[in-house]
Amino acid sequence: MPELSKPFRTHASVPRIATAPGRAVAAVLAAAFAIFLAAAPAAIAQAPEANAGPRLLGGDIHDPDDAHCGGRPAVSIAGARNGAFSGKVVLASNQPILQLTAAVGELRQGEAAIPASRLRVRYAVRWDRSMGGFRRPKGADILLESPPARLPAGKVDVWVTVDVPRVAKPGTYAGELAIKLEGGGPLRAPVTINVQDWTLPDTQDFSTWVELVQSPDTLSVEYGVPLWSPEHWRLIERSMRLIGATSSRVVYVPLICHTNLGNAESMVRWVPRGAGRWAHDFSIMDRYLDAAVKHMGRPKIVVFNVWDVYQQEKLLMKRAPPGADANQVRERIGDLHAKHGYGPAVTVAGPDSAKTETGYLPPWSDPASKALWAPLFKELRARMARRGLEKTLMLGMFTDAAPSKQEVLALHEISGGLPWVCHAHYAPKDKLHDIAEVAYRTTHERIVLTMNPVRGRTYGWKQDRLRAYHFRAAAWNQMSCTEVRCVPELYLTGDQRGIGYIGADFWWSIRDKRGLRAGTVIDRYPQSFWRNLEMRGALLNPGPNGPVASARFECFREGVQECEARIFIERALTDAKLKARLGDDLAGRAQKLLDARQHALWRQKGLTDEEIEPHGSVPSWYRAVKYDPRSGKPQLGHKWFLTSGWQERSRMLYALAGEVRRKLAGR
After folding, report:
1. What pTM was estimated for this model as a whole?
2. 3-class secondary structure, 58
3. Domains, the chain, ranges and CATH?
4. Does residue 338 register a pLDDT over 60?
5. Alpha-carbon gap, residue 86 to 551, rounded angstroms
6. Do residues 458 and 429 make contact, with C-beta atoms less than 8 angstroms apart?
């Protein structure tokens, strides 16, 4: 039985890119982060008028630049039971803001109340300039749970988020936000939330497909903590709690190293037992799955990563990481292939698991692979069966590049016929090389969107195939909050089940010698580049003590919640018996409201009524209908959305869902 090869130099050999700092460096980074937070607002917002004291302005959660803030400072929210909804005010001051604090008490409606424990106050600040401009999320995007002790003169967004109880009485609840700061205040703003008589399902039961991917390595690099240390696990669990709020239930368990997920290690370690024999340490995998179940919910898919493009023969990726010399990268990739025969990399641990190194197994097409991997997969299946997750298992991943027929045959036999996951430009066939099922796929092209529902409606949530849309590269960082909110519903009303392969905490954590954010953990392994299909955007942000939500994340979550209300109504409208129970009046009003919402999704894209009207279902390259990011239309659409009555549309949607529910219940 073959021994593992010696490890190949990995991310440490990539020129000019720093890796995970030690604890001393981490302390310096923490101090720098505090300075960045303190300096952030000054860099972004216009200062208030000279000699003006601290004051509150009205704001919109979709306007992180506060370009349209003003008017009466009030937090006014529309929502439904069992959901989370946000609003904000803008604190403006021409003097430095010191010792800022804000609090909101319970919200009351007569004798009924939403307790203060269900309300959160956060403070939005901007990224610093260490993040490159085109990759840097727009405006005050980082939602801090505690404000820095000192903020410069300018504007600070104060967010209020209400987690509405499942048992909340419908109606309008009111309270007050009180803001204090040194030398000013308290400043007060009314807080109201209109709760409709409809209950969102628990996130575990959402029908909208959402996939946010967690990155253990990003957290290790960002915060300078060793992989799988107690502090690292705390950070991972913090990410998972946020991810779970979106209903994402996909978990990746890399069985190989150095993949396009940027993972330095495999989650199952290989322990030598001599004479070519191996044992396997599952402790990291088990703890990771335990954390996912606890903080995200029961997984719908568990992906065992067994293949990536560095195993493809004659593959030489032309792209180099930021700051790297392309010729050197090619030489290293060629050296890897020459030495190790394109085989999968795994983490090898000593008997006490204290020391690890990277070794390489024979290629999957080598007959020796079966003897090495079959015992591992037998144990994996047994462990997942004990968890009740045996039906969630899939193999990952392939992209525009795919494993060979020989590799697929070998993996199909070794894994016991597990299906595959694919994230690519175009949808592959239902079977990989006519052998293995492709059970979950996200694609960037060749999808269908419905522009004008009057000319033909599609219902992505009804699709039998699990197919979602994949926004490649740094798209999630570059989108406006209005677009992020509308994306789930826009694609759900096409032929997709939802949105997938989104970076959760895959932010730019790799710094160059100047301290600038030069890349993601993916950049450490150029042999696994997917070119422009990689996750280079993230919906979570680095906070001083761990991952925090972004303004985009909260808008995205509200958009997903609205998808659930839409699906609830459409289930009734597309079922002949249920539609008959609604009656012509309610069914007609329901369809009219949903069509108006769909029209608004495209108006948010910057299209005019005249551009929308002639088109029914359109392919994803809808630049053909005059939508082009370079045209300025996204900016026009963003401005339109802010003044279009989006909150009233949300209120009407949840009210309609409640009316449909009562009618179907015979009330």
Report:
1. 0.89
2. strand
3. 11-22+203-564 (3.20.20), 40-199 (2.60.40.10)
4. no
5. 10
6. no
